[in-house]
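User: Earlier you gave me the apo prediction for this protein. Now I'd like the version with magnesium ion bound, so I can compare the two side by side. Same sequence as before, with the ligand SMILES added.
Assistant: Got it. Here's the input I'm using:
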Amino acid sequence: MTNEYVLEMRGISKAFPGVKALNDMQFQLKKGEIHALMGENGAGKSTFIKIITGVHQPTEGEMLLLGEKVSFQNPKQAQQQGIAAIYQHVTSYPDLSVAENIFMNHEVRHPVWKTLNWREMHKQARQLLRELGSSLDPKTQMNTLSVAQQQIVEIAKAISTKAKIIIMDEPTAALTARESEELYRITEKLRDEGTSIIFISHRFEDMYRLASRVTVLRDSNYIGTWDVEDISNEKLIVAMVGREINQIFPDKKTSAGETVLDVKNLSKLGEFDDISFSIKSGEILGMTGLVGAGRTEVCQAIFGITAFDKGEILLSGSSIRNKNPQEAMDNGIGYLAEDRLDQGLLVDWSIEKNITLANLTDLSTLTWIHRDKEKRQAKEFGEKVHIKATSIFDSVNSLSGGNQQKVAVAKLLTKDLKVILLDEPTKGVDIGAKAAIYEIVQNLAEAGYAVLFVSSEMPEILGMSDRILVMKEGRIAADFVNRGITQEMILEAAMGEEQVQEKSG
Amino acid sequence: MEQKKQTYQPRTLETNLPFSWKRLFFQWEWMLLLILVAVLLLGSYVSPYFLNYPSLRDGTMVFLDKALIVFPMAMIMIMRDIDISVGSTVALSSVVMATLYTSAGLPMEVAIIACLATGAICGLINGLLIVKFKELSAVIVTLGTMILYRGIAYIILEDQAAGGFPEWFGFFGWGYVFGIPFLLIVFAVLAVVFGIVLHKTTFGRKVFAIGNNPTASRFSGIKVDKVKVIVFMLAGLLAAVTAIFLTSRMGSTRPNIATMYELDIIAMAALGGVSTAGGKGRVLGVVIAVFIIGYLQYGLGLINLPSQMFLIIVGALLILSVAIPKLGGMIKRK
Amino acid sequence: MKIKTENLEMEKKNPLALFYQFRELGLFFFIVILCIGVQLRNPSFLTGENILDMATNTSILVILALGMMIVLITRGIDLSIGAVIALSGMLTAQLVAANPSVNPFLCLLIGTVIGALCGMVIGVLVAKVGLLPIIATLALMNIFRGLTFLVSDGEWVSSYQMSESFVEIATGTFLGLNHLIWIAVLFCLVFFYFLNYTRTGRQIYAVGSNPQSAAVSGIKQGRILFLVYTIMGGLSGLCGVLWVSKFASAQGDTASGYELTVIAACILGGVSIAGGSGKLAGVLLGAILLGILNNALPLLNVSPFWQNGIQGFIILLAVIVNAVVKRRVERTHLLRRAG
Amino acid sequence: SQGAPESSGASGGGESNDGPKKYAFVFKNTGNPYGEKMLDGFESTIKELGGEVILRSPDQPTAEGQIQIIEQLITQKVDVIAVAGNDPDALEPALKKAKDQGIKVLSVDSAVNAASRDIHVNQANPERIGRVQIEAVSEMIDGEGQIAVLSATSQATNQNTWIEWMKKELEKEDYKDIELVKVAYGDDLRDKSVSETEALLKSYPDLKAIIAPTTVGIAAAGKVLTDKGLEGQIALTGLGLPSEMATYIESGVSPWMYLWNPIDVGKGAAYAAYELGEGNITGELGEKVDLRDLGEVEVVEDGEGTQIMLGDPFKFDETNIDEWKDVY
Ligand SMILES: Nc1ncnc2c1ncn2[C@@H]1O[C@H](COP(=O)(O)OP(=O)(O)OP(=O)(O)O)[C@@H](O)[C@H]1O
Ligand SMILES: Nc1ncnc2c1ncn2[C@@H]1O[C@H](COP(=O)(O)OP(=O)(O)OP(=O)(O)O)[C@@H](O)[C@H]1O
Ligand SMILES: [Mg+2]
Ligand SMILES: [Mg+2]
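And here is the structure of the complex with magnesium ion:
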């Protein structure tokens, strides 16, 4: 063939009102390669993707598909050219069925009557999902699915278009090791079938496991492209962050104090069953498990968002039952929501108002808010967590993922808490910000907080926790003290006999 | 973002905005103010009776009664809800008041308190139903109570009218204090109070937060349900206040008073810049909008324009005032 | 994720599943019970004649509810339909009065076109200019209503000015059933097909369910919104003609406030104001419930002064019962998921 | 919501004392042909008499709307206000205010209470209106059987008075076999009037006749009876517009019904208003009012107030309906 590149992007730039999101980007995608795209939050990865898929139009630069110059005015055109994408923020139709989500806008239709052929779609959908190692029923309504399950559906959607180029924007962010493995398998299968794949992730293991080449972005600038073999971890980090991060996980110098939170046989019908654990002050308790294991539900039950059926919660000895988050916070329990954008932040609001939202009573007399006090507090805590912004009045949706997460953390810190429940605090956050968040968490522990650290990423669980809980099907499958624990041991506990099922099924 | 990523090096966050003319002038309220001025000029141009103090003053008494409800309605709309039962609440509270006074022979003061209580209870019921049954939207709940409340008013008064209130009761609807209509004073006071509550207090902040993202608000420890119930109660209470003024103006009441009020009120709030999509709105804008619609109505009335023409003009005004800025934005983007 | 998905599948295999899938179960039972109650009080309720009357009087509501359903699904609302009904009804009636020979089908067509034009105005304002539907339609409600008064100049068009054939539209019967019933049935079938078996139909749900993803999956939202309001307008226009033909009189204040009844029918039927969800069967039930109320309340020979109160109470009761039943169903789901 | 000048460049210019006097007529609501005709009659007559006319009505038939209009009329310094009240008492404060400013007030068609008016122009004697409809029904069903009334809204004061008189008339010995089974309210809405009528037919299978003393109601009832092919079996009478009722009178569904000529009512109101404005009358008991071609009538008492009456309701049947149906 004349040119070795399926897709080539030359000097692509994109400016949003106020932001230069992308600047003179260069990119080449070979046929049948998996090409990793890396960079910090806000580096411009997603924007770049959206330009390829025609969601945004570039302000400068040209785009060649198989050597042909193209420009997409809308996503439809890109789809017709065989480009499919899994977007970062899951873009599903909550009210529609799985099958429909998969086939939306490229439905299977009767050749003549153009009527939708549901039977066929359900058949194909079930087929696709099975290939992805999921036995989801295509008729299930999307909003009953977990984040992970939705992610799988998204992938099925992309594959169903039989695209030549598939783009995955942080597909593993919501996945645990096991689902990630599934995803790796699929991706490689697709590659071997000749599909070219652009793979965005903040997880290094993803890249090393899959990609043959990696392109790095920083501050909306193109830094370079390397063969994965040729570049060392350190060099890559420098390329991404622009400086050395000699140590990602802070070293522990914690001295666990007396027990603060003591959860006894907590149970909720259909969600979790007989959950018991305790956290000491200054201790970081890691909690992992397969997605859907019910970790979020446990946290939310403790935080008083959902009620629980049986069991009790002891806070430094005395039994409490939080009827609502406010009570929980007054009792000294804080919760960092799993879903930043929906549950954590008011994205249209300024950093300032987000930070102070949980603490308005302390900032007001007779409910009258003292703006100066408010500003001071916002500044204080914003700086404490190193939010990367010019002023406290910047709106949260102008921040990148990592910084948004920091705002959410800062909000928690305004209350004087004893226990902090962190649900996937580093989800979709770049390496630099991760290190920062780890450090914050460590500092919290040292400051005497009792920390519950929910995560799906083995390395950080192992790197951060003093003790590790593994949840499975809403029960606690294992409780390790984090000494000489390996990923394998955790996965073993997390899946248990389920692997046998795998083989049999 | 020009600063390099130095995660560990402490960075400072700016805490005061640089002054900007843009921020000062690109505000809905200015647009509204212009419209109001235009309306006043138009009024004085078309009718010699329009632009003089007594006329403008008494003009307010014609439209301000229902306008009292616009404040809580704005709050409700900011919270992405809506209350279409307020008209019926006015009727019911008014009927209750009148019956207690005439039939039950209670003193007027007591009747008035009962009226306020009735309104508040109606609002409370709306609020409770809405938060207890989240799957029901405010629209259907208040639509149900809209029919129910008026229905109760009919059950109480059937085909009768109730009136013959004491002399002093007429003061609410017709009285002046230092030459200013009492109604106007009450409206002004309420405007200030609601302005402060909505923009300066924690309660107002919570209302906006809920309108912006209910889930996140709840996760941040805001008692969303409590706030909602309170606001709907306020709407009921203010409906009762309106009932007092309206009844006083009419000197008697019937179950069919205040029909279709809700739509006028929603229109006022919307023109005032309150977004039914939630999260946005300012009391100042709402106040100006009230006077725009009120005086437009009054002015057109003075030149005896057909009522249908008035319908059309207000409709057009509503669309234009909302559309023009959007169109402007579209052109800019082009 | 196997864990949860598997028992999700089991649920579907469960024989009761189909039963549970019908989400307006509570409403259905409520209606049944209501009918029984009314029947006990007045035996002439469930007679063939009365049922036919009920069906005839509910047909227009059903047709409008279908349109309102797709508007609500796209997160919109249309408050102007009452006014559109009046406008198209008045214009068509005036046409008929002017030349009685005009063909009834032409009348239906003209009315529909007038309505569709009104709908397009809304469509442009919502889809292109980006006004909030509630504001745009609130304003246009005023405008259309005003126009109706202007064109009619306060006069009514009366039955003696209408041709036999025109009045026949809504009074004539086919196979013993009133034309209105047939028209309503026809539209139900068309909508069922449209919503479930055409791409556009599904895109309406998609746009309402998640506009952002609709955008990235290349669905032309503007077009869908425009379409939806045009359809709603067209149906209103059609119903304007039917209305005038049914009552053999066109007034300026025809169907004022009717939009609320239509919206009530939809929401009773489980259409969510938040958009994305709504099933034809539910809406049908909602309309039927209101139809029953309008017909039954006068039959109950309760004091006319109690009618409003009872009606409001029943509507609230209906939605609450429906909600409670839904919760029950959810809970049984959980129970079985827990195994 | 404002009112409607059907014509006359009533920009409201000129002070009240100099220039032509200003006569305002406030009807119940717009878009009601009965009212429009009345306004026409009023307007043309006042014009002849050389006065300036202002015609206003709210778009909804509510007292609130009328109060607003009256306020604006006061501001315009009109000389006379004629009003067809949507509520007899609710307008009192507003009309009192008008009277305090020296404006003459008369109510037409639908009275406001004595305190708030100088005189009431009654389209016809309400007693007669009530009684004559019973007489008619009795004749149609030869003195025996069940009858029902289909009224406007339960709040419509005119209808309520007439129905009172009907009940009084029914107490007479001649009507002992006639039973008034129900008073239903169609709220002057087509759809509600229809379902109410249908309900009547079903709840009272032996129903012999329906009296509908309201234009919308009687037409709706006529439609139902026609569609169900009940002409001859169930008689319909009441008060209706000839235009609306023509079909049903010709088809015999309604052998005959009554109304007065709204144009004449408008005229009468105009003359009365003029006389008041000129100070020729004050509305005292026993005064003679010259209604020109409508003849001269005496001011009689009505409750605490006074009124003039324009004569009996006019009977429309197949003999004369044709000539009237195009008039109003
Ligand atoms: N629609 C938009 N309007 C304005 N600014 C935007 C928009 N989308 C992205 N940006 C800005 O462009 C920059 C790049 O955003 P982008 O989402 O591409 O970063 P990213 O590399 O995907 O980060 P992450 O790893 O967190 O996904 C960020 O500063 C972001 O705030
Ligand atoms: N199969 C399922 N059916 C219905 N709801 C589900 C299913 N799986 C998860 N959910 C719900 O989706 C939400 C998020 O699911 P998720 O898998 O994140 O739960 P989790 O395991 O507690 O969270 P995490 O992602 O931290 O493991 C939870 O409220 C959960 O109840
Ligand atoms: Mg991204
Ligand atoms: Mg979770």
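For your comparison, keep in mind: Residues 1-9 of chain B have pLDDT under 50 and may be disordered.
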